Amino acid sequence: MDWSQTPLGPIETWPASLRVAVELCLNSRFPMHLWWGPELINLYNDAHIPVLGKRHPHALGQSAPRVWSEVWPLLKPQVDAVMSRGESTWNERTHVVLERNGFAEDGWFTWSYSPVRDESGQIKGLMCIATEDTARVLAEQDRDRLEAQRQAEYAAERAKLAAIVESSDDAILSKTLDGVISTWNAGAERIFGYTAAEAVGKPILLLIPPERRHEETEIQQKLARGQRVNHFETVRIAKDGRKIDVSLTVSPIRNAAGQIVGASKIVRDITARKKAEAVLASQSEELSRSNVELERFAYVASHDLQEPMRTVQSFAGLLIRRHGEHLKGEAQEFLQFVTQGVQRMQALINDLLAYSRVNSQDAAFARADCNQIMAKVLENLRASIDAEQAHIMVDALPTVLGDATQLGQVFQNLLGNALKFRGKEPPRIRVAAERKAGQWVFSVSDNGIGIEAQYFERIFIIFQRLHTIEEYGGTGIGLAICKKIVERHGGRIWLESKPGQGSTFFFSVPDRNTTP
Questions:
Q1: Higher pLDDT, 157 or 432
Q2: Which of 194, 346, 370, 451 pairs with 322 at a CA distance of 20 to 30 A?
Q3: CA–CA separation, 353 vs 300, rounded Å?
Q4: What SS3 class is residue 308?
Q5: Are the beta carbons of 421 and 500 closer than 8 angstroms?
Q6: Is beta strand 366-369 parallel, antiparallel or unpaired with respect to 399-402?
Q7: Which of 116, 115, 93, 96 lies closest to 104, judged by CA?
């Protein structure tokens, strides 16, 4: 820098006061600059360069009004106070708009002006110590903006929560650790009948019947341990004295330090549900009693019908044997009708007895090997299998926990139906089992006449037939017995079928950790 080309002249001509001030400035690590003489010639140290931006190095040796032209209207009154009256100035985090980098930008600075005197005591310049606070101010503004946003969101969330609480059908209230009600929503007013003005400030015991006040002590003890009470069903009392069945959920309320200072309580009126449950329980008990009585009646009635049926069958047979040759064709036909009717009635009674006994069996469930059960069933049906020239395939079957005799009834009924309701081709039947979702699902598939979907439910109802007795024999009870047995074992029975394409009957039995 050639100082001889500036109003300050060559360095060797500078007064001692200027040299001392410049040395002080240059040796400081703090941002400092010096303005000297009437022209306020600009001198500064390296720490001050960031404040200048692109003005450096051209600002060195230039007059201050020229260097800081855009902010000189702000600075001039303070500079005049220093140069003319010797007054020091102080500016803290003052906002200015600078063009130090070729464009206008906001900046915040803290600076002070102090007079510098020559050897005669005359004010010849000023010393400025300045720090830039822009980054700190912007960070604080961002922090304040985020905090304001957070507070706004928090307020909106609280308002939303308050609206939810106020519009809830449940009673939502809070209480102190001393058991004094501190908040009370509209739901609480609807359930208990007290307004907020009547309830707030009153003890929570206001809502508790005397015989249940020990519950509040137990709840308070749990809250003191920081525990939550979930869906506790009890009874509370309304303003008009009504007892209300309620479900309570109680949670501790903590302050900012994490200390428990109270509790929030959600009270749901379950009176209607309790009444419905009582009605349902009564109806279930009545239905169970009716079913027991019905099964007993079916058993007794069927059992009592056995003897007269045997008598009719016996005398009809005796009549045929002794006098059959003396009866004319029509009489023999009528007598044959009697015999066939008795036989059908006997089969119906036997099936009805079997149906009534399904749920009254005393045999406990035990390990039942379905392979052995199926072998016995096939032996029982051997004559029908041979007569129909049926081909039966049986896959490996599991061992399940159940009643082997009843499971045999299910297999025999399903196989018997597959043989009975055959198509034009010889019956082809497959028995299989597959484990699915903790259950064994058994299947009996055939190539028989099939069933329309509209009858899938009907065929499991007792005495429901899809064909006349002349077309296919039977009593119409077999599948109803299967359904009852499967349900006793904790499973269900269903089918898939299309007319003319055969049927597959499925039934499930829970897999209770038996070995296949």
A1: 432
A2: 346
A3: 9
A4: helix
A5: no
A6: antiparallel
A7: 96
Q: Is residue 174 part of a domain?
A: yes
Query: Distance between CA 91 and CA 98 in Å, rounded?
Result: 16
Is residue 354 domain-resident?
no
Are 379 and 501 contained in the same domain?
yes
Highest mean pLDDT among 51-60, 153-162, 350-359: 51-60
Q: Name the 3-class secondary structure at 2.
A: coil
Same domain, 283 and 258: no
pLDDT classification of 209: cutoffs 50, 70, 90: very high
Q: Three-state SS for 446? A: coil
**Using an 8 Å Cβ cutoff, are 442 and 432 in contact?**
yes
Q: Which two tokens stand for residue 13?
A: 């001509």
Q: How far apart are the first and last CA of the chain?
A: 102
Q: How many CB atoms lie within 10 A of CB 123?
A: 14
371-406 confidence digits (pLDDT tens)? 999 999 999 889 889 999 999 999 999 999 998 888
Q: What residue type is 162 in one-letter code?
A: A
Whether 355 is in a domain gets the answer no
Task: Let me know: does 76 contact 69? Beta carbons within 8 Å.
Answer: no
Query: How far is the C-alpha of 495 from the C-alpha of 421, rounded, in Å?
Result: 15
What residues form DSSP beta bridges with 1?
none
Nearest-angstrom CA–CA distance, 246 and 237: 10
- Do 180 and 314 belong to one domain? no
- Residue labelled with tokens 């309620």: 246
pTM over 0.85: no
**Mean pLDDT, the chain, whole residue set:** 86
Residue 516 banded pLDDT, cuts 50, 70, 90: very low
> Which residues are 365's β-sheet partners?
none
Among 429, 398, 406, which Cα is nearest to 504's? 429
8 Å CB contact between 184 and 194: yes
State the residue range of the domain holding 385: 361-510
Question: Do residues 131 and 226 lie in contact, with contact meaning Cβ atoms separated by under 8 Å?
Answer: no
Distance CA 390, CA 429 (A): 8
Quote the tokens at residue 475.
């009593």
Which tokens sit at 117?
């005197």
**Model pLDDT for residues 344-358, shown as the tens digit of each residue:** 666 656 656 666 556
One-letter amino acid identity for 270?
A: I
Please, what sign has the CA dihedral across residues 497, 503, 509, 515? Answer: negative
Q: What one-letter code names the amino acid at 335?
A: L
